[in-house]
Design goal:
By secondary structure, this protein is an alpha/beta fold. It has one domain: 3-Layer(aba) Sandwich (Rossmann fold). Strands 3-2-1-4-5-7-6 form a seven-stranded mixed β-sheet, with helices on one face. A hairpin with a 2-residue loop joins strand 6 and strand 7. Helix 3 packs across helix 4. The protein is globular, with a radius of gyration of 17 Å. One of its GO terms (biological process) is methylation. This is tRNA (Cmo5U34)-methyltransferase. Keywords: Methyltransferase, Transferase.
């Protein structure tokens, strides 16, 4: 797998403020998660790249009795998640990669939010999806959110995103971030993502959410 993206220092401490500012309808998407997983009623839920624990917090506050395992390679992010989720006995948080989890435990559902665009499409995206699939029961849902689109779509959607950003964000910061999104992250087209999911043993994903460059899908393990 290619180099893992680690969030540290200001990137970690300011992560929650960052997603609030840069992902329109972020909380609406998180509000969807408990509803999307209600029909499957998973007992064991795997949150890959859990970050500061935002999606886990949304899931546990809905009163579900899921056992949730959250993993992230960034120690500072995991520390924030532990502080945020202290007191929930049904949550296990680990500073780990998916490969660190044993294959013998199977999960009934998984989430993968804002992770894939940090991995190159050189086998790394596919490997992550395959490793998740190995740990899911047949028919288990996988919910994903990621920066997605071909180069022209990304460019045009970034123009719209710029218009919707808060006036409080300095112009220099906006320009740097937009350039990073367009030229330094490893986003792929929706068709390519679908092909990767199928190759990894999942169904063709169904897009249910889009907010500019951010798209969300559901798929299931075949």
């Amino acid at each position: 797998m290619s180099k893992v993206e680690l969030f540290a220092n200001e990137r970690a401490s300011g992560y929650d403020q960052f997603v609030e500012a840069w992902i329109p309808n972020y909380h609406y998407f998180l509000d969807c998660l408990p509803k999307l997983l209600t029909d499957t009623d998973p007992k064991e839920l795997l949150v890959v790249g859990c970050g500061t624990g935002n999606e886990i917090q949304k899931l546990v506050t809905k009163g579900k009795t899921w056992n949730i395992t959250g993993i992230d390679p960034s120690p500072e992010m995991i520390q924030q998640a532990r502080q945020k989720l202290e007191g929930y006995p049904n949550i296990v948080l680990a500073e780990a990669l998916i490969q660190d989890l044993k294959n013998d435990k199977k999960y009934d559902a998984a989430t993968l939010l804002l992770v894939l665009h940090f991995l190159e499409d050189n086998g790394s995206k596919l490997e992550l999806l395959k490793e998740i699939g190995k740990r899911l029961v047949l028919g288990a849902p996988l919910v994903m959110l990621d920066i997605t689109g071909d180069s022209s779509m990304i460019k045009e959607n970034l123009k719209i995103l710029r218009l919707l950003l808060s006036d409080d964000i300095p112009e220099e910061q906006i320009s740097l971030r937009l350039n990073r999104i367009e030229n330094e992250l490893f986003h792929v087209s929706e068709d390519r993502l679908a092909a990767l999911c199928v190759e990894a043993g999942f169904e063709v994903p169904v897009r249910f959410f889009q907010s500019m460059i951010y798209m969300g899908w559901m798929t299931k393990k075949r």
